[in-house]
Amino acid sequence: MNFKRMAITALGVFLMAAPLKAYSQSSEDIFLDKCANCHGKDGAGQTAKGKKLKLRDLRSTDVQKMTDPQMADVISKGNKDMDGYAKELNEKQIKDLVAYLRTFAKK
Questions:
Q1: How many Cα atoms sit within 13 Å of 35 on the Cβ side?
Q2: Alpha-helix residue ranges (DSSP H) falling in the chain
């Protein structure tokens, strides 16, 4: 294979892979997209919707003492005030989101 073909092939692979990276979301991005509207960027639940629904503070000891599988279950299935995200998020995204929620723990 000559240099020109190798360069074109490499460019094609790069261009095909670049859009995939643009669509992958970090757990913070997922939180901001799916959760922050009600829970707030800081997880305190002090948004208009959060106050109306009397959401628990995600930073609180009560929420943080939940096990990872319990948190994942709420994210997947939802509860009386929240739709589940099992159809929108895969297992790894949910697991990563749980880890992100752990960063909200009050010190």
A1: 28
A2: 3-23, 27-30, 36-39, 48-53, 61-64, 68-77, 91-102
Range of the domain at 31: 25-102
pLDDT tens digits for range 80-105: 989 999 999 999 999 999 999 999 99
How many domains, the chain? 1
Q: Are the C-beta atoms of residues 85 and 33 closer than 8 Å to each other?
A: no
Tens of pLDDT, residue by residue over 11-32, are 454 545 444 444 568 999 999 9
44 neighbors 57 (Cβ within 8 angstroms) = yes
CATH, residue 91: 1.10.760.10
Residue 69 resides in a domain: yes
